[in-house]
What we know:
It is a single chain. This protein is mostly beta strands and 528 residues long. Helices cover 3% and strands 42% of the residues. The protein has a domain at 447-527: Immunoglobulins (Immunoglobulin-like), CATH 2.60.40.10. The chain contains one helix and 39 strands. The strands form ten sheets. The chain has a six-stranded antiparallel sheet, with helices on one face. Strands 21-25-24-23-22 form a five-stranded mixed sheet, with no helix packed on it. Strands 34, 35, 37, 38 and 39 form a five-stranded antiparallel sheet that branches. A hairpin with a 2-residue loop joins β10 and β11. The radius of gyration is 25 Å and the shape is elongated.
Amino acid sequence: MTRDAGTTGETAVAGETDGATGSARRAGTVSRRKVLLSGGLLGTAALSGVGGWQIGQQLSPAPSGAAAAPPGSAAYGHFVTEPDLRPPHLQVADLGVERSTGHVLLTPSLLPGVRGVPSTPGGSQMGLSMTDVRGQLVWFVPTSQLATNLEVQTYRGKPVLTYWTGNIVGGIGYGNGYVLDSTYQKVATIKAGNGLQTDLHELTLTPEGTALITAYRQRAADLSKVGGPKDGSVFESVVQEVDVATGKVRFQWNSLDHVGVDESYTPVSPTPMDYFHVNSVSLWDDHSLLVSGRNTWAVYRIDRRTGAVIWRLGGKRSDFAIGKGANFEWQHHVRRVGPTAMTVFDDAATPAEERQSRGLLLRVDEGGRRVSLTRAYTHPLGLLAFYEGSVQVLPDGHVFVGWGTEPYASEFDAEGNLLLDVRLPTNHQSYRAFRGVWHGLPQTSPRLVVDKDAIGGYAAHVSWNGATDVAHWELVSGSSPRSLTRIGHVPKSGFETAVTLHPVGSHVAVAALDPQGRRLGMSPVVRI
């Protein structure tokens, strides 16, 4: 089906375009599109990043306009103090407007051979990434397996980081979820129960101390209604609500018990048919869940006690009339964001049903059984995500969109104007992308490396992976570890700060100071 870009009777669609190259209809979008296409992500003065630092001076971003660096170079985040970290380089288009507070949370992974870029050993690492809005690295942890869903949530009244990591086979994950406290220590491991493995698609904590997760299992099914064998099989989608502290399964929903294979848009295959493909679970209210079936093009409100389907929105059996521009296909990451509002990442692919993917803000009229488009958020480059993606409404009303297989994440204001655009390397992706306010204080100490520079002095490099509230580094030196005195301080500059040292003795160290000048931690003493 071809989507009508109009929104008769609704708020205008943000960033809708005409034609394949996309002449933007709104004047505000035109200027932002020109910024992006004329170099906002390809090398203008607005470009900043995490790599390209020069040793021996206080650090500054790599020169704008620099070509993409080869794997293993500075653009992949080589740090003197953390030589084993190779986070992917981010490019950020700063449009000079007010943005939301909070960090950018990604789970970058490599797509080998995609878009003509080969997979090269020694390149950037996949893992858990937290940056500021300039693309400066704040925290990075490489993972040996793929990671998804790095997000700031609340557990037992305190902020935590949650994520999933494991193997992915045929779009299905086999791994575990994790909860970290503000010191990056593991609080809990989240595992599916009843003999299943935790899937990659969802990890949402509830106020009751439970986690909403997804899982898959193979199950026999009659596929004769969809042109398959009567004794066929499917990958059934499973939703579980698991107690975080005990691991006990409090609730389980099996898709095949409530949704038939004839609701699917995916074709029958010789292997088990992934007819539903759950990829999103969240609370609709205290008594029901909101479940997204990618391959049925539908969102289901599920009774949290009985598992009964209360209503379907979208797909072949929708209980709602779908208004102009409010349709979606192959969708991801569905959330209720108000009494009558819901967000959806409308992939509209694979295969392609539309020209571009959209972040949707929908109005859901349960009484009148009608859903209408409030606003659609599209990227100026007309991105079409093959799968994955996310839409997050921020506390100030801004909207942060992760573009799934397309290596972008974008912040829009409430009117749909692009405020911030973050770009991963060409052959990278992040399953979802989030913004979140986070205050981290690692149990590790700051790292300090001191070397002689080219003119006989000393160059010091210091970093503290995950420490979010460091404003300055205080330099101390003395003739012994017990006789250190302050010799100066420098502002923190990016993930790793480099300064020229003028020591007063044979031993040096640095202390991390917060904006009020309080010490947060101190490095080990280094003898020079």
